């Protein structure tokens, strides 16, 4: 008699803005361990800029889903401000004040922890950022709370570029409870048409990540959307339209075009011509691409996955997740 293979249980995080539709959030909750509310801000002296996320927290609790507050150095235009991050990271007193405020917020709102998402951190502030996360974990873990950090999709320790130089995988693996790899946005709004998360590129990031961080501390980022580019692509001028996976599928049906599948990227795409005669190409996620990504969790021994983001529900993707894994509730 062959024993039934035990299903793996994984952690699943989903990022959400407070503007998420109630029905969309309810559809996602059975498949989530954490919901990360995006995003809280802060001032240079460590004051917290609140996020009105009570609607998410209230809905998540009865479903056994724990809420994490996402902390970002965003400016008033919604762009990452590394000068704000620099001011905080070079001021130990401001950091202590910020951690105090994070703890107060988590206790007051009944949340589970904090997710640090500082992007474009200056190379000179790299170690200070790691130290901030380490101090936060020390304080929050002692109070029973969790600290996670979202990191750029690096493939080597000394990878050049502003997105990468301020993130220390090995240091953050020691500083935080979990690392969320932002393994998406190869295809993006202002870039040339390509898969949002090509599997071959995701593998390169994971190969590096597991060399620096224990795999059971890693959550792999998965995109829950696609892009529609008008052709020809013109660098500096073209701007792709971000669309849900369901809309991508519906658009292909509406124009009666064939959906292709790129074997290297393990991602679907198609071409169409709109009513005005303009040519388009669309890259998105479907059951096949989701299955290919989710299989990496078992292959690499990862803790789980993190969806950016859950503002649209993709039933087919959730079905693939349920077929492959059980979702942990903590």
From TrEMBL:
The lineage of its organism: Bacteria, Bacillati, Bacillota, Clostridia, Peptostreptococcales. InterPro entries: CFLE_GH18, Chitinase_II/V-like_cat, Chitinase_insertion_sf, GH, Glyco_hydro18_cat. It holds the Pfam family Glyco_hydro_18. Keywords: Glycosidase, Hydrolase. One of its GO terms (biological process) is carbohydrate metabolic process. It comes from the Bacteria. GO terms for molecular function: chitin binding; hydrolase activity, acting on glycosyl bonds; oligosaccharide binding. GO terms for cellular component: endomembrane system. Residues 10-330 form the GH18 domain. PROSITE patterns: GH18_2. This is Glycosyl hydrolase family 18 protein.
């Amino acid at each position: 008699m062959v024993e039934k293979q035990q299903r793996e249980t994984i952690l699943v995080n989903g990022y959400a803005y407070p503007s998420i539709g109630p029905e969309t959030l309810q559809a996602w909750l059975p498949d989530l361990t954490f919901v990360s509310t995006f995003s809280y801000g802060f001032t240079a002296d460590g004051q917290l800029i609140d996020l009105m996320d009570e609607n998410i927290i209230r809905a998540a609790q009865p479903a056994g889903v724990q809420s994490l507050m996402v902390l970002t150095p965003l400016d008033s235009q919604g762009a990452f401000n590394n000068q704000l991050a620099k001011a905080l990271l070079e001021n130990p007193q401001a950091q202590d004040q910020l951690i105090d405020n994070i703890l107060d917020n988590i206790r007051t709102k009944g949340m589970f922890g904090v997710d640090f998402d500082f992007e474009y951190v200056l190379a000179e502030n790299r170690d200070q950022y790691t130290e901030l996360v380490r101090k936060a974990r020390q304080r929050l873990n002692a109070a029973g709370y969790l600290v996670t950090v979202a990191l750029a999709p690096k493939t080597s320790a000394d990878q050049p570029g502003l997105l990468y130089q301020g993130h220390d995988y090995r240091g953050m693996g020691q500083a935080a409870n979990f690392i969320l790899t932002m393994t998406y946005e190869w295809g993006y709004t202002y870039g040339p048409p390509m898969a949002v998360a090509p599997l071959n590129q995701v593998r390169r990031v994971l190969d590096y990540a597991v060399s620096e961080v224990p795999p059971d501390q890693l959550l792999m980022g998965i995109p829950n959307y696609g892009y529609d580019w008008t052709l020809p692509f013109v660098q500096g001028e073209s701007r792709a339209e971000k669309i849900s996976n369901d809309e991508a599928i519906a658009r292909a049906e509406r124009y009666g075009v064939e959906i292709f599948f790129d074997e290297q990227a393990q991602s679907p795409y198609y071409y169409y011509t709109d009513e005005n005669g303009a040519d388009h190409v669309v890259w998105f996620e479907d059951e096949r691409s989701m299955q290919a990504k989710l299989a990496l969790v078992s292959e690499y021994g990862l803790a789980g996955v993190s969806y950016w983001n859950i503002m649209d529900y993709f039933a087919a993707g959730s079905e693939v997740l349920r077929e492959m894994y059980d979702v942990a509730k903590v």
